[in-house]
Amino acid sequence: PCAGPVESRNEAAMSELVQEPRQKPVVPMKPMGINANLLGYIGIDTIIEQMRKKTMKTGFDFNIMVVGQSGLGKSTLVNTLFKSQVSRKSSGWNREEKIPKTVEIKAIGHVIEEGGVKMKLTVIDTPGFGDQINNENCWEPIEKYINEQYEKFLKEEVNIARKKRIPDTRVHCCLYFISPTGHSLRPLDLEFMKHLSKVVNIIPVIAKADTMTLEEKSEFKQRVRKELEVNGIEFYPQKEFDEDLEDKTENDKIRQESMPFAVVGSDKEYQVNGKRVLGRKTPWGIIEVENLTHCEFALLRDFVIRTHLQDLKEVTHNIHYETYRAKRLNDNGGLPPMAVETEENNESNL
Amino acid sequence: SFQQQPAQFTNPETPGYVGFANLPNQVHRKSVKKGFEFTLMVVGESGLGKSTLINSLFLTDLYPERIIPGAAEKIERTVQIEASTVEIEERGVKLRLTVVDTPGYGDAINCRDCFKTIISYIDEQFERYLHDESGLNRRHIIDNRVHCCFYFISPFGHGLKPLDVEFMKAIHNKVNIVPVIAKADTLSLRERERLKKRILDEIEEHGIKIYHLPDAESDEDEDFKEQTRLLKASIPFCVVGSNQLIEAKGKKVRGRLYPWGVVEVENPEHNDFLKLRTMLITHMQDLQEVTQDLHYENFRSERLKRGGR
User: Fold this and answer.
1) pLDDT recorded at residue B13
2) What are the angstrom distances between the C-alpha of A28 and each of A44, A61, A97, B35?
3) Of A293, B94, B264, B294, which residue is 20 to 30 A from A350 by alpha carbon distance?
4) Taking CB atoms and an 8 Å cutoff, what residues of chain B touch A161?
5) Per-residue pLDDT at B123
6) Shortest Cα distance, chain B CAs vs residue A84, angstroms
7) Under-70 pLDDT residues of chain A
8) Is-contact B13 A79, C-beta < 8 A?
9) Is B219 a member of any domain?
10) Structural domain includes residue B23
11) What SS3 class is residue B243?
12) Strands A173-178 and A202-206: what pairing?
């Protein structure tokens, strides 16, 4: 529980959460049915409210991966996104630490709570990516990690006595950090995204966007979008998974105009016009992270957290995971990888 | 390497609203779009008012062209399984309800085999789901598993009959049983209380597992807690069904007209109909979860242990 100014900000933002009173069947409604002629009110819509309350109580897992060369502000951005010290930067990582010789996968978990909803957030960092002299195949450890999580989930799912809620360590979202060169994507960027967009939801992000003017930013974004399209890279939200016209319209706008988001991250606060804001202080002015005229951080945050969080998880579960599973089944002659053997199951639980 | 920090970690230096509290709304939106499915089975002797009750519960006519067979026709009849599906929409929320009827149950002179068909049906739905769940393409699995079984007990006897006991024991590990005393208007209030108590005693005596309503959670409002207490105390529900509109006390009510008065279906002082409906609606999701997490998982682990797919 946070005290003071936090509460009032929460309340103002809380108007997004529609609190519906519990419905009691009282007044008969006009008949509305597909096959049925209703003569009154049953209360079916309250079921959805029950589900919503349940979601709030059970809490949820969210696993976000950040990929990009060191120094692009990945850790800072994740901290800014979740307004908490949740990244590797904050868990005892030393800035002077040597760049690892190979790509390492570091997963750090936190439980954060907001408005009664608990989130078990895992941030997966990938230090060493793109930092070597020879970066060939440096995406392989990352792809391997992602597939290992699918495998873990699959093994639990085919268990004879399986857990009620299978722990979900699968990567729901991968933020790929593009260096703000202003020219074009680098070959490594293309290679990574080509390989990984098939197994995980990739959201490309232009890092340290405060090094570009508005025109440079706009041109760069257009060029990046074009390059991604020409190379057949389907980033999230993928066109083929739009569920209906409403989704398509909303997502088209994001795909064609907003993405890739040009962001700036910061976990320092400054006073601007009497308000405390997150920003970066320079001799020529303060860059306000949450100011849409300065950068697109707020768009990224709203997109990932406020509107598409559940969808990111669903696409991971219904599409990427199912693709992995189908491939595993096919490789295994149509059978699940773990058959009925109790000993094997015991092993997998180690 | 994976570190776990203890619960509730927000950096007090950077307070503010992140926005993931909006997740339940996102889930809500998707659920409304998807709608959901529920399968209800009704079991009981002919003439106990099952069809009328189902129609009353969902304010529809699920059985428009029904022909009621005579006694002679019933002699040779075996138990049938008849499933009807109806889509009900209310305030934008779609429910695809399947009612599985079991005509012929309890009708034959010798009822010894009458529940085999029903048990096979329940198992078949589990089997089909297991098969679909293990298959390659799982995008559109249809859930036809029976989520709840209303078992109708005759109000004319002195409690459970041997058939009632045998049947419930045969299915209590496969489906959520909700016992219902039908045609409650044949009993006075005192007779009802006696019958309910008798039935509950017999259920315990025979070790029959009926569906237990979960207790209200501590953070629910007092109204809901009270409602849950009331529901739990009223089981088994004693109900009257009717879709006829009768004029009573100046307004139109659904009920049954007798020379001595009108039995109102939706009057809580006359019978437990509203309680039954409230229980069903507020626990629809829990009924599905218990079916998935308990009955189906039991079936699945037994099935996998026995081997083969």
Assistant:
1) 36
2) 13, 40, 69, 22
3) B294
4) 297, 301
5) 95
6) 5
7) 1-40, 88-98, 334-350
8) no
9) yes
10) no
11) coil
12) parallel
CB-based contact, B95 to chain A, within 8 Å: yes
For A176-333, where are the alpha helices, taking DSSP H only? 187-196, 214-230, 245-253, 297-301, 309-315, 321-331
In chain A, the residue whose alpha carbon lies closest to the alpha carbon of B274 is A25
Buried b (16+ CB within 10 A) or exposed e, A209-218: bbebeeeebe
Domain of B200? 36-59+75-308
User: ω into residue A237 within 30 of 0, thus cis?
Assistant: yes
Strand order, beta sheet including A275-282: A269-272, A275-282, A285-288
The structure tokens listed for B146 are 């029976």
A residues 154-173 closer than 8 Å to B (CB) = 158, 160-162, 164
Complex-level ipTM? 0.75
Report if residue B261 sits inside a domain: yes
Q: Please, what are the domains in chain A?
A: 62-129+136-264+292-332 (3.40.50.300)
Strands A275-282 and A285-288: antiparallel
Asked, for residue B168, whether it belongs to a domain, the answer is yes
Number of domains in chain B: 1
**DSSP-derived secondary structure for A144-191:** HHHHHHHHHHHHHHH-SS--SS----S--EEEEEEP--SS---HHHHH
pLDDT in tens, A207-261: 999 888 888 999 999 999 999 999 999 999 998 888 888 889 989 999 988 899 9
**CA B110 to mean position of chain CA atoms:** 28
Angle between helices A140-158 and A321-331 (to 10 degrees): 80
Q: Which residue has the tokens 């509730």?
A: B8
Distance (Å) from the C-alpha of residue A260 to the closest C-alpha of chain B? 21
CB A114 within 8 A of CB B18: yes
Contact A237, A254 (CB under 8 A): yes
CATH code of the domain in which B259 resides: 3.40.50.300
Place of tokens 């501590």: B218
